[in-house]
From TrEMBL:
Its cofactor is Mn(2+). The chain holds residues 1 to 380 of 507 of the full protein. Pathway: Amino-acid biosynthesis; L-leucine biosynthesis; L-leucine from 3-methyl-2-oxobutanoate: step 1/4. One of its GO terms (biological process) is L-leucine biosynthetic process. This is 2-isopropylmalate synthase. Catalyzes the condensation of the acetyl group of acetyl-CoA with 3-methyl-2-oxobutanoate (2-ketoisovalerate) to form 3-carboxy-3-hydroxy-4-methylpentanoate (2-isopropylmalate). The gene is leuA.
């Protein structure tokens, strides 16, 4: 697992973090067991340089990566920032799609290939662990992508990343691209293939998993899926998909899943990016049930409506939220939890009054219930 919350995640408009906040995030990523932490883009600013060097000094377990364009200055600055890392990685990239080469780089394709070779070799002179990315890889001509990947591996790249930079691909197409690429590039077995998917069509996690099915063994993602535009693939979703469905996705990540909720809350707090209520795994409603039918099922057997336990992702317990869809069974259990055991008539009365209240209020809080039952007892 390659986490880029501190680099691509921070590129979300408005998500910038201070050095102290980045160190807190780096600590939790390390505790989660992330294999590679991409700490920033050292050439981008003095602040980015400092945060990459501080993260590099601090991380105990994972590798620390810095991003660099295919230029000598970028690569040398990145190497300097990573000087104190136990396991430094330089991640260098250049665009390979016709659109990016023509308009963004304004470079001939042959010149781009030369730069792939020179940038990777330069990075290899600094560190042993070099990742090369074909920016806009999924909109790149296949033959050209094969040539670029072959050159990068020959120049010493140990990881080859094929980003879906603009979130354009689909699972079947991405799976096929990675499969064909690994078959067509003669030295493909000398590198680990990696996926890096953006979420413009809401397919980032599905595409990443499809890439893994095609043999990719590194997944680039972020906590809460933050990142450029619609974001990157969400780490917590990928990890829990593999953990929950080992039959369909027989892969293992080594992530300490009990820390996922804590990591999500921390990233949300330091970036001031709220997590949507219905976000998979870490959203406030991911383990909450309001409807009577679901609450009744949950009280009989939690697996009726939950495919993973809340404890497995660090949530204390399932929440039975009291609202207008809730039924008697959940109402009685909720009162029991609050310390009230009512007789059948009082319970029926209180339930009716609760339903009236729930029609007026979106959520009925514990305090509302306490007030309602106390009133019931006083008036009995
Ligand atoms: O989306 C992208 O292409 C990137 C690269 C720099 C890896 O973030
Ligand atoms: Zn990206």
């Amino acid at each position: 697992m390659f986490d880029t919350t501190l680099r691509d995640g921070e590129q979300s408009p408005g998500a910038s973090m201070t050095l102290e906040e980045k160190l807190e995030v780096a600590d939790i990523l390390d505790a989660l067991g992330v294999d590679v932490i991409e700490a920033g883009f050292p050439i981008a600013s003095q602040g980015d340089f400092e945060s990459v060097s501080e993260v590099a000094k601090r991380v105990k377990t994972g590798s620390v990566a810095g991003l660099a364009r295919a230029s000598e200055k970028d690569i040398d600055r990145c190497a300097e920032a990573l000087r104190d890392a136990k396991r430094p990685r330089i991640h260098t990239f250049i665009s390979t799609s016709p659109l990016h080469m023509k308009y963004k780089l304004q470079m001939e394709p042959e010149r781009v290939l030369e730069m792939v070779a020179s940038s990777v070799s330069r990075a290899r002179n600094h560190v042993e662990d070099v990742e090369w990315s074909a920016e806009d890889g999924t909109r790149t001509e296949f033959e050209f992508l094969c040539r670029a990947v072959e050159i990068a591996i020959r120049a010493g790249a140990t990881t080859i990343n094929i980003p879906d930079t603009v979130g354009y691909t689909t699972p079947a197409e991405y799976e096929s691209l990675l499969t064909r690429l690994r078959e067509a590039v003669p030295n493909a077995d000398k590198a680990i293939f990696s996926v890096h998917c953006h979420n413009d069509l809401g397919l980032a996690v599905a595409n990443s998993l499809a890439g893994v099915r095609a043999g990719a063994r590194q997944i680039e993602c972020t906590i809460n899926g933050i990142g450029e535009r619609a974001g990157n693939a969400a780490l917590e979703e990928i990890v829990m998909a593999m953990r929950t469905r080992p039959d369909a996705l027989p892969f293992h990540t080594g992530i300490e899943t009990k820390l996922l909720t804590r990591a999500s809350k921390l990233v949300s707090a330091v970036t001031s990016f709220p997590v949507q209520y219905n976000k998979a795994i870490v959203g406030r409603n991911a383990f909450a049930h309001e409807s009577g039918i679901h609450q009744d099922g949950m009280l009989k057997n939690a697996f009726t409506y939950e495919i993973m336990t809340p404890e497995s992702v660090g949530v204390a317990k399932t929440a039975l939220v009291m609202g207008k869809h809730s039924g008697r069974h959940a109402f009685r259990e909720k009162l029991k939890e609050l310390g009230y055991e009512l007789g059948d008539n009082a319970l029926e009365d209180a339930f009716k009054r609760f339903k009236d209240l729930a029609d007026r209020k979106k959520i009925v809080y514990d305090d509302d219930l306490i007030a309602l039952v106390d009133d019931e007892i006083v008036n009995a």
